[in-house]
Design goal:
By secondary structure, the protein is an all-alpha fold. It has 21 helices and no strands. The radius of gyration is 22 Å and the shape is globular.
Length: about 400
């Protein structure tokens, strides 16, 4: 069987297992084993390569980063910081319609599964002022919740992309900031065109105090970002310092501290990270990546089609944020350029995959938000298809300008 057909078989098996709701970490482990066997690796070699990838220093660092992100999310959620943030926003916002966008955007600063559900009640309450229908409430909550996933360094997609490509996460985030700005801009244009202006809610006039409460509601996240981008500390160390600060400065009992830490040591997150790195290593060690290179030259029209199709289809078919990066990016390494990956190609592939995620009918955030607002998917698609197309068009234009033309 030609090498490229073996790769296709691996992808089809992975998609089938994901569709059957198997844990993504387990699916990728099985995909790594299947890859090794299809490319005739000895079982002993397969086991040795898998073990080496699982205990590699970079893999263990990634597990630490994931656990710390989960911890900070649990800390902010259980200590009422999100509620404080929303109350502060109501005092600060100069334009009433922003209450339909900024709460999900602020909550989106912290990665969490089905995170759009945290802001859904806020949009439900705010939407009553304009008598918005279910589709519009779903779109506004869902769209603004996801504007950060192009460039916010706490998102697992970006952490995994940096680990696979070897590009520093700060560099990836910097090059993808324009897409966060573009997504926010097109979202605001759609919002302001559809929702009429209305008088601002009355406030107590203490906006300075509200700004302080807003900053306090997100202080662990702001501290971590300051350490990462301001002091140039590693993400692991920065998140560790922020987590330690929450333990030092928060009034928590020993029981509460222990419970918070234990609940944050999510073994599924650890398995997912390890499985991604094992899968990547198996693709390299088995010769699968070489087979991709032989079948699809890393330059020319075929390569550009793969840069779009592989991540987009993975995102759309699975609806799992980490899947489009964890599965497609290792296979695209020959096109990115191993050793010195081309950031323009990486950005195009990432945006293509994330647009697939946004449109996926199996994306957990979309499914739960549709259920919450009792909206029809087709009605939400009618609103969302143009903004999603604009974001993808931005990535395609960048590819044309900087690499194709």
């Amino acid at each position: 069987m030609p090498g490229i057909l073996r790769i296709v078989l691996v992808i089809l098996v992975l998609l089938l297992l994901i569709r059957r709701k198997l844990d993504l970490g387990l699916v990728l482990f099985l995909g790594a084993a299947l890859t090794g066997l299809l490319f005739r690796m000895a079982v002993r070699d397969l086991g040795r390569e898998a073990l080496a990838a699982a205990i590699d220093k970079e893999t263990l660092k990634l597990v630490g980063v994931f656990w710390l992100v989960i911890y900070l999310g649990r800390f902010l959620g259980t200590r009422g910081h999100f509620r404080m943030m929303v109350d502060a926003l109501k005092q600060i916002l100069p334009e009433a319609r922003l209450i339909l966008a900024l709460p999900p955007a602020f909550i989106g600063l912290l990665p969490m599964f089905a995170g759009a559900m945290m802001s859904a009640p806020i949009i439900e309450e705010a939407g009553r002022r304009w008598k918005l229908d279910a589709a519009w409430k779903t779109f506004l909550n869902y769209w603004f919740r996801h504007i950060w996933e192009y460039s916010w360094p706490l998102y697992p997609n970006l952490i995994i992309a940096a680990a696979i490509t070897g590009i520093p996460i700060a560099r990836i985030c910097f090059h993808q900031i324009p897409f966060t700005i573009l997504a926010a801009a097109v979202g605001f244009i759609v919002l302001f065109r559809h929702v009429p202006a209305m008088d601002q809610e009355r406030s107590d006039g203490r906006k300075a105090a509200a700004v302080g409460r807003l900053a306090y509601s997100l202080w662990p996240i702001l501290l971590a970002i300051l350490l990462i981008f301001g002091l140039k500390l590693s993400m692991l160390l920065s998140l560790g310092i922020a987590a330690l600060a929450t333990q030092v400065f928060s009034r928590l009992s020993l029981k509460e501290r222990g419970a918070l830490i234990l609940k944050s040591l999510d073994w599924k997150a650890a398995v997912l990270i390890v499985s991604v790195m094992v899968f990547k290593q198996m693709l390299e060690a088995s010769g699968a990546l070489a087979a991709v290179t032989r079948a699809i030259p890393p330059h020319g029209p075929g390569a550009y089609v793969m840069l779009f199709a592989a991540p987009f289809l993975m995102g759309f078919l699975t609806g799992v944020n980490q899947a489009f990066v964890g599965i497609s990016f290792p296979m695209l390494l020959p096109i990115f350029g191993e050793g010195h990956p081309d950031i323009v190609l990486v950005v195009f592939a990432y945006v293509s995959g994330f647009v697939g995620i946004l449109l996926s009918p199996t994306h957990l955030c979309l499914v739960t938000t549709l259920e919450y607002f009792r909206a029809e998917l087709k009605d939400v698609y009618r609103i969302m298809i143009v903004p999603a197309a604009v974001v993808f068009a931005g990535a395609f234009l960048a590819l044309l300008v900087f690499r194709i033309l």
